Structures are given as C-alpha cells and as structure tokens.
C-alpha cells in the first residue's frame, strides 16, 4: 500500500481547509429593510450586524456576511439567492 494520498483526496482536504467568504452584492432592487431582515433570517445575524453589513453592501458594493467551509456556505448562498439577493462565494 502506498503512503501517498491520492490527488483527489488531497484536493478535497485542501478545499476544506481554505476559508470561504459568503459575499452579498449590491443591487437596485432590494430595500435596506428587506436585506437586513434576510440577513437576520438566513445568516443568523443580530440587528446591528445585519444593518452594518447592509450599509457596507450599499456603499462599498459588497460585504462578506459569513465565513466558513465551502460545503457549509453553499446552501446559505443558495437560500440568499432564492430570496432575491445577489450572493456568491469567494476565497
């Protein structure tokens, strides 16, 4: 048996070790109140954190609203997208 780890397993471990960021991007459709409510509901933010993120999204164009492993953030990103927010994952 070889002591080397197959390439596919090494890649999977590498992806799991890299921190990913859930980004929400500004749009001209959703209101401040809706974005705040959605961040609280989907990401578990408290009101001050959701409000601060919403202002950053509006004035800077985007904000990292959550950090974690890819497999943890992907369903959250999909839910934000389903609720009409422009969201993506970044490293």
List keywords for this structure.
three-stranded antiparallel β-sheet, 91 residues, alpha+beta, 55% helix, 4 helices, single chain
What does this entry look like structurally?
By secondary structure, this protein is of the alpha+beta class. It has a domain at 30-90. It is built from four helices and three strands. It has helices spanning 7-17, 32-43, 47-60, 70-82, and strands spanning 20-25, 62-68, 86-90. Strands 2-1-3 form a three-stranded antiparallel β-sheet. Helix 2 (32-43) packs across helix 3. The N and C termini lie far apart (35 Å). The mean pLDDT is 91.
Tally the helices: what do you get?
4
Structural class: alpha+beta
**Order of strands across the widest beta sheet?**
2-1-3
Instruction: Report the uncertain regions.
Output: none
The number of strands is 3
Average pLDDT? 91
Please tell me how large the radius of gyration is: 16 Å
Q: Would you list the SSEs in sequence order as H and E?
A: HEHHEHE
- Any idea what the shape is? elongated
Beta fraction: 15-25%
Fraction of residues in H or I helices: 40-55%
- What characterizes the major β-sheet? 3 strands, antiparallel
